[in-house]
Amino acid sequence: MEDSTSADELREDTLQLKKDLEKIIENMEDMSVQLTWMAYDMVVLRTCPELRESLKKLEDEYLKCKSVICSPAAKTNLEELSATMDYGGTETKTDYVVQKNDF
């Protein structure tokens, strides 16, 4: 009786260990990918200093656009515009948006 209980506990412990090891391996793989991208970014930035300035400008413009788009007033205006637009024919609003955004 004691042997079966200890065998069950051993199996459960082994399964838990396997799960923990898989999580650790996955975390290490994620860190490896992040480190690879960091190294790549450093090489690119050192070989082309102008890129740093371009990336900074791009990030600034993105943040400006995001603040405008995500503001409560912009959301209200977008909802009002969406409600008043005529999509015509058999198009749905979704079809129109997809067609307008395909560029």
Automatic annotation (TrEMBL):
Q: Which InterPro entries match?
A: Synaptonemal_3 (IPR028145)
Which biological process, per GO, is one annotated for this protein? spermatogenesis
Which named protein is this?
A: Synaptonemal complex central element protein 3
Q: What is the lineage of its organism?
A: Eukaryota, Metazoa, Chordata, Craniata, Vertebrata
> Which gene is annotated as encoding this protein in its UniProt record?
syce3
